[in-house]
Amino acid sequence: MYLIRLNNCLMGVLSVIISAFIATREPDYLKLSLAVATVFMVFAGGNIVNDLFDIETDKVNKPSRPLIAMDFNLKHMFALVFVFLLSGIVISAFISRTAFAIALLSAVLLFLYSWSFKKLPFIGNFTISLLTAILFIFGAEAGGDYTKGIFPAIFSFFMNLGREITKDIEDVDGDEYAGMKTMPIIIGKTKSFFIAAVVFLILIIITFIPYFNNTYNKWYFFITFFGVDVVLIVLLTIFYIFDDIKTKRFVNNYIKYDMIVGLAAIMMGAS
Predict the structure, then answer these.
(1) Number of H helices, E strands in the chain
(2) pLDDT digit string, tens, across residues 37-50
(3) What does the angle CA 135 – CA 29 – CA 147 come to, to the nearest 5 degrees?
(4) What is the CATH number of domain 6-269?
(5) CA dihedral in degrees (17, 255, 200, 135; nearest 10)?
């Protein structure tokens, strides 16, 4: 379970379910089940391959990771990645052609991200944020109307882009040791933080749009404002003031959970 990062897989599944119900209140439960299975498989494969390419970095940043702490056969792990990703792609074909195309693109991007893109400043951050955003288009497609997933995808993109940058700040020591060229290594932690802050500011501004154009209701506004926007400002303030890894990791974890609050607001607001 630790190897596939069950929490991440379940968050992906939850995102798909939410976006499917945003698209329609009466989804095709067979297609939704196939979508859940697809996301679980692709996420699991992506998490494992990410750890495989991250072994040297995690020896410094996260030595408790299973691939570091336990004696796994790396060839067997790559074979397991192939099985997970291929299974997810095949399952998606039974949903729709659009779903199949999204799953195939996501699997390819996940592998490229772990292999190469994550070592490139901003490109890696952009890729993983795009992958998370696509997830909501995929879930809405399983629900029958992919267009209903567009705003949740935009919300997710900016939330994850900001968090990816703050994660790079958290992991700067291990990334530098592994020879990676992340944004904080190239331009420094302070400048990187302000770029992340700008991304989150754009997100906060965007969250007001669906309410004022009458796309979502007042419940969306109240939950998003107090549960997402205010919380983000507090978390970023803590991140900026305290420079220890433990605090930065705490903030990054809660930014991830804050995204769930935002998705709940979207779901309630769309009803």
Answers:
(1) 14, 0
(2) 999 999 988 888 88
(3) 40
(4) 1.10.357.140
(5) -20
